[in-house]
Structures are given as C-alpha cells and as structure tokens.
Amino acid sequence: MFARSPQPLYLGLLTALALSACKASSGSHAASATTAAPVAAATAASQLPAGYHRLADLSAKPVRHFSGPPSFTLNPKDDYLAVMVTNRGPVLLYLYSHRVPNTVNSFVWLARHRFYDGLLFHRVIPGFVVQGGDPNTLSSDRNTWGLGGPGYTIDLELRRRLNFDRPGVLGMARSQSPNSGGSQFFITLAPTPNLDGQYTVFGKVLRGMSVVNKIKPYQAPAPGTPDRILRLYIAVKPVGS
Predict the structure, then answer these.
(1) Apex CA 54: angle with CA 48 and CA 55, to 5°?
(2) What is the pTM of this model?
C-alpha cells in the first residue's frame, strides 16, 4: 500500500506511512510553542556531549522550499549530531555522516535552514515508528499531511550493517521509487527488519529515547493535536576528539 503523490512516502511492505509537521492551529498554542522553544533549546544545548559545539544557522527564519538539492558541505573531519527539541523534551541524534554522507548532508542543510522547526509528528504508531519532517503539516488541510518535501529528492544509500535492528534507528522515508528521499524521517520504536535494504539508515538516538517513547500516537488526517518539533539544530566535533 502506498501513500499519495506528489511525494508519496511509505514504510514496510504492508503499511503505508508518511511523515509530517505543522504549526499550531490556534494562536495561543502557537504562542506557547514559540515561547517554549528558546528555553528548551538552551536546555538541550547544555546537555551536548563533551567536545561538541553548535553550528550556526544559515537562515534567521525557517526555509521550507528549495529549488534543488544542496551542494556537499559536510566537513569530513567532523562528527555530526542533531539536537531535536520536542514538546516532550530533547532528543540527541548521532548522524552517520561518514557512512551515508549524501543523506546526512541534506538533513544537515535543512536543519541549518531551520526547515524542521515547528513541524508535527503526523504519524506515530506504537511499537513501530515516530515520523516527522513534512512541511505540509503547516497547512490546515490535514489530507495533505505526509505528502510534502523540501522541493528536491535524494538517492537511497544502503550500507551493510546499517539496519533497523533496534529501537532508536533513524531512517529516511521515501516513495515507491528508491531514489525519492526528501525531508521526512522516522525513528524506530522497535526492531523493524522488514525495512532493511529498503530505506536509508542515517543515524541513531544517542540520548533521549525515553522522550521518543513519550511522543503520543497519532495518524493524519485524524483530529487531535500531534506532538511537535520545537527546534532542530546541528552540533559538531572533530573526529576522534
């Protein structure tokens, strides 16, 4: 079963899954999220592992659309970490920049343009995955949630020994076409071997799996208020330090 175009996203052979994000539907909720984000982000920054420092944003405001994929800008001498601050707390994601560099390069590019800030987790299935990263969830039309992307696609990157063999694996969603990744990502809540060899594994939860497990179940376009990403930014440290 496949999700809908223009950027259909699916996970597994029998379950169609999508990834999304959204701004608050009411002014008071939006104000609350905006107020909470700087405090939560500052708290998360204070919890960075030793040796990491935050990379500067490339945009003062979120950029949601690009005309094409980014140039390669990763520094091969650095290790990369994503700090994802949610309304449930911070999650630290170690990125496999040396194993799947093109996928990580795109993810880092989007994060440094604040693409993910404010987006919702539009598909959360207990015992399977937490999904996010769709800018369409900023729309009031929930029927479009799970169909969006950054305006470009990236190729599938498969590597031996990078599998969905445990909770906390970070994967890149895609459509029926193998080379159709974009901005939408998922974090496994359990081993999901049926995804092996089909989706790029590009990181893992380093800290905060308890936070991931607290993200409440939701499947678009159902009514309700999904949990959200308040802020997502990148930190680096020299390799081996």
Answers:
(1) 155
(2) 0.85
Within-domain flag for 14? no
pLDDT in tens, 184-237: 999 999 999 999 999 999 999 999 999 999 999 999 999 999 999 999 999 999
Q: Which residue range forms the structural domain that includes residue 31?
A: 27-238
Domains in the chain, number: 1
User: In what side-by-side order are the strands of the sheet with 129-132?
Assistant: 53-54, 229-238, 78-86, 89-95, 200-207, 169-172, 185-188, 129-132, 123-125, 218-219
CB-CB contact of 225 with 29 (8 Å): yes
Asked if pLDDT for residue 7 goes beyond 50, the answer is no
Position 186 in a domain: yes
Q: Is the pLDDT of residue 17 over 60?
A: no
In a domain, 181, yes or no: yes
CATH code, domain with 116: 2.40.100.10
